[in-house]
Amino acid sequence: MKPKELIERYSNGEINFSGLKIPGANLVGADLIGIILNEADLHGANLIFAYLNRANLAQANLVASDLSGANLSQADLTGADLRSAMLHGIILSGAILQETDLTLAMLLDANLIGADLRGSDLSGANLTGACLRGANMRQEKKNFNTNLQAANLFKADLQGANMKGVDLARANLSGANLKEANLRDADLRKADLSKANLTGTILSEANLVGANLTGADLNNANLVRAKMMQAEAGGANFKGAIMTHINLNATNLSGANLSFTRLNHADLTRANLSGAYLKEAELIEVFFAKANLTGADLSNTNLTRSDLMSANLSRVNLSEAIMPDGKVYNARR
């Protein structure tokens, strides 16, 4: 079928074109709202600025197609193949993208507000500046999660997104907005979260081993039982964060703001806390083996039963702190 015939038949009221084979078709700006193209072959098609709102493209082949600026709001793309597709500025708000293959797709400035991306593969995709507010990417079952490995999410807006169990290993989230997002049990190994907004974000049981959190804002974040060994978090803001049972072994927290945090039962073995600000933090039963606390401010902290025996406490401010033996430190004594 030729593109012209498709448009004419659609204009005459026909909408069901399941299984249509029209690779490389030129459908620039075509008005195909609500069309049924499930299992269609549209690989390499030119659909720039096309109107495909509420279209059914489930299981469709859209490999290397160009949908830049197209409107696919509330469209069904379940299981569709969009590998290496050009989707710059595409509108996919409220779209269903379950188990969709978007490997290496270009989604710069894409609108994915409220989209359902559960089980989709976005590994290596470029989502720079994309808006994914309220998107659903949560892991539905074990070993079946949304894949964003090595994806570029530089300055992407992911506020309030459900990313429970998502694979973000080596992803670029520098400058991204992840405020109040759910990243529980997410894989963020070696991810770049420098200068990211993680205020109020749920990161409990997340894997942040080797991640870069330099200058990130984690105010009031939940990091309970997170794994954050060998991470870079210099100058990061953790004020008021809940970090009980977190593993911060060999992590760089120099100059970080950890005031009013709850770090009870945390492992800070060999952590670099030089110049860190921990005023009024809860540090009950924390393990500080060989930790560097040079010049850190631990005033008014609670260090009950914490292990400071091998820590470097040079120039540490312990004013009014409750020491491991339960006594209040007073420098004037």
From TrEMBL:
InterPro entries: 5peptide_repeat, Pentapeptide-BTB/POZ_domain. It comes from the Bacteria. This is Pentapeptide repeat protein. It comes from Gloeothece verrucosa (strain PCC 7822) (Cyanothece sp. (strain PCC 7822)). The lineage of its organism: Bacteria, Bacillati, Cyanobacteriota, Cyanophyceae, Oscillatoriophycideae.
